[in-house]
């Protein structure tokens, strides 16, 4: 078992200790073959069969598998200083199956004048990151699938969605994950829960206030605010521009451009929707609007409308909140590593319970790759021994793709060598290594590591 795997499974509590041992072995094997299938990682039929029995075991589920990682995340959170961001988002996993009913469905799409059901699972994840973007780990994960569709759009003509209790809606997952993450991290005042427009849920704001934790969400609803039926947008139109802030954007072709945003912010009383005013109280919240006056051709002007229970007293505090919201893209990157690096949607397991067990393990592996990528960018001078084993360091020194090691080799030197194994060119104007070259390099390093361990052995006569 690799040292990092041992840390991530240490706090797992299985009803049988052999299951914990098997989890560690599987995590190590899958971590050494990122993107490979279960048979490719296990190498032989006996180990592969043991893996399939583990995924099918009724005493194993994703909560037990992730419990150790959640505890390790909490330890890293405690060691960090200051506020920490908890990024929330949902993603879908699609699979092709002859019998999709064993897994479930995610959505229905029109195809050639007919409807096609997508087989798959949904996952709502909560990723803990520092304000600089270093992922500390996951604090909550929720998997689910849809057995049938209730025709939400068709029901809107008969039922007012705002009058349906939040507990009966699928969006309740946002509140569940916020509760679980806050309780897991055990320091609610340091947590800032960040979400996109899908998280603009009034009940979430009230629960955050009740738990004494912080939130920062992008709004999609012009809520009631102030007196005499006024709204947030009307009150913000009367606010002066407090200053400008420039941010860098990168398009799909990698071209970088700068956008100048004009900032307004104001503390105001925000009221619940009319149908919920008997159950939920009004809240004193801060609204931050960041709008781009004009945008280059081919791109819509940026318009961020943020809502938070954090105080914003000056321009510097408003810019800080924008920077925190911009870190929300990190969870999209995590999902990309999960799907493209771990090849999660290529899994061949045939039931939802087996797939969620495998996906839970992939989540830990994806975090590991993402963490290596970001720690290389934010702490390049850190000691390499904190991340890599002595044998791995020796192998990387012998490979020497990043040039002669300095007198005091840093983490950046060794991770650059790993990235070069994955195809990173390290040219003068190249950005730091990304997740893709890191996970490719780790897979190649595993193969080289195997050859290193076999050196000197006599095979045959």
From TrEMBL:
Query: Could you tell me which Pfam families the record lists for this protein?
Result: Dimer_Tnp_Tn5 (PF02281), Tnp_DNA_bind (PF14706)
Name the record gives this protein = IS4 family transposase
Q: Where is the Transposase Tn5-like N-terminal domain?
A: 1-60
Q: Where is the Transposase Tn5 dimerisation domain?
A: 364-445
* Superkingdom, natural source: Bacteria
Q: Where is the signal peptide?
A: none
| Residue ranges the record marks as coiled coil | none
């Amino acid at each position: 078992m690799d040292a990092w795997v041992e840390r991530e499974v240490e706090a797992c509590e299985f009803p049988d200790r052999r299951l914990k041992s098997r989890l560690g072995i599987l995590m190590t094997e899958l971590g050494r073959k990122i993107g490979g299938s279960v048979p490719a990682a296990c190498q032989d039929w006996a180990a592969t069969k043991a893996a399939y029995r583990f995924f099918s075991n009724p005493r194993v589920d994703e909560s037990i598998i992730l419990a150790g990682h959640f505890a390790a995340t909490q330890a890293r959170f405690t060691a960090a200083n200051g506020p920490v961001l908890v990024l929330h988002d949902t993603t879908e996993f699609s699979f092709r199956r002859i019998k999709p009913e064993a897994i479930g469905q995610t959505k229905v799409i029109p195809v050639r004048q007919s409807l096609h059901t997508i087989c798959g699972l949904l996952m709502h994840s909560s990723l803990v990151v520092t304000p600089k973007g270093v992922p500390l780990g996951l604090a909550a994960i929720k998997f689910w699938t849809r057995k049938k569709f209730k025709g939400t759009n068709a029901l809107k003509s008969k039922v007012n969605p705002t009058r349906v209790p939040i507990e009966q809606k699928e969006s309740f997952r946002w509140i569940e994950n916020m509760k679980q993450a806050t309780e897991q991290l055990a320091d609610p005042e340091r947590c800032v829960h960040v979400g996109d427009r899908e998280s603009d849920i009034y009940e979430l704001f009230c629960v955050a206030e009740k738990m004494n934790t912080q939130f920062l969400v992008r709004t999609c609803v012009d809520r009631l605010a102030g007196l005499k039926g006024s709204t947030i947008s009307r009150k913000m139109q009367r606010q002066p521009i407090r200053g400008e802030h420039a941010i860098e954007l990168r398009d799909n072709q990698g071209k970088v451009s700068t956008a100048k945003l004009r900032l307004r912010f104001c503390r105001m009383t925000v009221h619940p929707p009319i149908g919920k005013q008997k159950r939920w109280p009004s809240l004193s919240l801060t609204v931050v609007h960041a709008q781009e006056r004009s945008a280059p051709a081919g791109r819509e002007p940026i318009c961020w409308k943020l809502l938070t229970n954090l105080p914003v007293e000056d321009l510097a505090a408003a810019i800080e909140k924008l920077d925190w919201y911009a870190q929300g893209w990190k969870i999209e990157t995590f999902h990309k590593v999960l799907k493209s690096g771990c090849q999660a949607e290529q899994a061949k397991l045939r039931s939802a319970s087996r797939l969620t067990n495998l996906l839970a393990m992939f989540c830990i592996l994806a975090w590991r790759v993402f963490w290596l990528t970001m720690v290389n960018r934010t702490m390049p001078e850190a000691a390499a021994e904190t991340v890599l084993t002595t044998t791995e360091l020796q192998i990387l020194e012998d490979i020497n793709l990043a040039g002669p090691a300095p007198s005091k080799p840093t983490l950046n030197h060794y991770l650059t060598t790993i990235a070069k194994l994955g195809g990173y060119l390290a040219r003068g104007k190249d950005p730091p290594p990304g997740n893709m070259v890191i996970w490719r390099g780790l897979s190649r390093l595993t193969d080289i590591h195997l050859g290193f361990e076999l050196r000197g052995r006599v095979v045959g006569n």
